[in-house]
Amino acid sequence: MFGIVRIYVxxxxxxxxxxxxxxQEAYLVELRPRGVVAEFNPGNPDYDRTASRFHxxxxxxxxxxxxxxxxxxxxxxxxxxxxxxxxxxxxxxxxESRWLELVLVSCDSLxxxxxxxxxxxxxxxxxxxxxxxxxxxxxxxxxxxxxSRWPLDVLQATPLHRAGVFGTxxxxxxxxxGFRWRRHPSLQHLxxxxxxxxxxxxxxxxxxxxxxxxxxxxxxxxxxILGGYAPDSLIGIAPAATFLLAKTEDDRWERRIExxxxxxxxxxxxxxxxxxxxxxxxxxxxxxxxxxxPFVALNGRSTLPARIVNEAARRGVLxxxxxxxxxxxxSTFFTPADADSAISIGAVARxxxxxxxxxxxxxxxxxxxxxxxAPGADIQSAGLGDRTYIRAGGTxxxxxxxxxxxxxxxxxxxxxxxxxxxxxxxxxxxxxxxxIANTTYGHVDVLAAAKRLGPTFxxxxxxxxxxxTIVYTTLFSEPAVQCFxxxxxxxxxxxxxxxxxxSNGHCLVRLSSGASFSRVRFIAESPSKTAERSVIVPPVTTxxxxxxxxxxxxxxxxxxxxxxxxxxxAFVDAADVLPVLYGSGSSIDVTVHDAQGGTIWKGxxxxxxxxxxxxxxxxxxxxxxxxxxxxxxxxQTVVVAR
Length: 642
Known about the structure:
The protein has 642 residues and is an alpha+beta fold.
């Protein structure tokens, strides 16, 4: 629906499959700071080599955050001589973190002792025991949602969908236990930029030999809520986004080494251009001899996951993570929900109350958890095995709804900083009172956030017929602002027309098809900013992908060109639909019936070239139209989507 599958295998720092040796263990090695290199700027060979590993969107995002230059000193590769020394002593490097100056090494205890004596190494500890602390300890049709509609309505995401906003061109990273996206019918349309398996250190995020059968089930489910697109079954909140997928969670156990897999995934995603990272994962209690994380370390800046999240946020990444499902008692969350920069997500039920299972804070650093709420109970999502679709619940389900909400806002406001997007969502969230914790939380309202950030315009559509050309868009703004349309002719003339958006923000201008014009600009002015979106008017009808703006044809002309039927969503109310019949040359009998075959309208079109409005308003659904003359019969299916 949203384009062919695109897969790019990005260069990964995190490489090498490590054989499991009985005498070996994973050790976390902390290196001495690399220090500052003089003139580490564009033009410097070291800088240019480092920058070449970054996706252009990663550099653009960093520049929006005011990072000058966008590539920083701690983005440089770790010292090759240090890494070589570790390998010469017998250690095998599994992965590394440039930002935190850490190396994950597989070796035995004697080798670990030798590595620890290297001058460049400050500490080395088994990963199962390590809780490193810093120095300071404190198809583009209108979507048919099926059973997936209710949470999108609650989030107020459907008005953005109707405007053609689906997260197009926004890069989202998803961290989970695996993704069977190539095989699930709701995910095969996805644009996947890259994949990282941070368990076996390859680029396969679906199940591999040795994985439990359900290893990639949770991630597939989460991804479908974010990016699924299967009409009448499941529509995700941001199905047109581009995705980076990382498999970090090993379902065979809960081990502390997964924290470093998480660290590796975050750095890879940031470098690969992720603007939003969605993680329905968390760490606190571990199996076997791995030491659990003490509550004092859940202070927002001490655990490995929290530290890497804060580093990513400093570079402009919006990091959205699940609060956990261990409520309703206080301080039942897990890291990285405690991270100072993390946007932790709780779940609400269909009745609007906070789900009892949602983990609550506060953190050891007194941060309120969760940060925001979203639907997280009775959620339509992708299933595996015998059930293609299932209903699921948990903060893992609520998290992708919030990540997708940020993607819709990022599409509308590509120049906004991550802080501005976050503030808009937090400040417009609807208040939900938690009687158990005796506090209040904010439920995401993405339409309100879009208006708060305004003014801006959604994608532009055009409609052509023999009499006129209609150009239309949707304005997002609160409060109302002054709007006008500037029409530029092919001969250099300019005409400016004031316009008044309707109550839904719809802006429309009608132009004579015989007039000469080349570009139409919609302009909105507020005291603080001016928004503009323009289009070179094409010679054919176009529509924003997935929108339900007026005049989008859902049918084609009959083969003999005697008649056609078009489905026109009414401009004043997106719930109204006007199927319009055209005829010429002969009398045409017309029958409109519902999906069960029952007749809901019957009449005759007497060969006129003017349109006949068959009926003015029908519910969403599938309708059949049969047109018959003495020589021909033509059948057409019309899909009505609100």
